[in-house]
Amino acid sequence: MNAEQMIKKLTLAIVTVCMIGCASGPQFSDYAKRLPQPNQGDGRIWFYRPQRVLGAAIQPAVTLNRQKVGTAQPGGFFYADRPAGNYEVGCTTEWTHKCHLTLAPQSNRYVQLNMMPGLFVGHVVPIEADATDAAKELQELRAND
Fold this sequence. Notes:
alpha+beta; 9 strands
């Protein structure tokens, strides 16, 4: 196999991994308006990963107080309704990265899942995001299936 054929096969493999790994559900604007409000006393936490290609094969579990609530899929989002209180969000690849947030009743909080380079594997780092910034970024994303 010559170098040109290898490059073509490698490119095809990368594109295939990216397409398989990306979220493919409805867009945020359609999805969010069909959801009921959280139960009385609960709030909603939105998790989203804006990068679509960078680290597409890295899709760690996302935990909320050490319980899995979803997966950090490139270009995707999901949510979790929980009672008001304090929460720890975690993502683990080589290391566990965490952020903390406080959820009020009937409120929305946003956690951006950022891809960062690592020693052997990339890292997904959760960071609480500003509601205005998150609203803009979420418009381009699709629900995790």
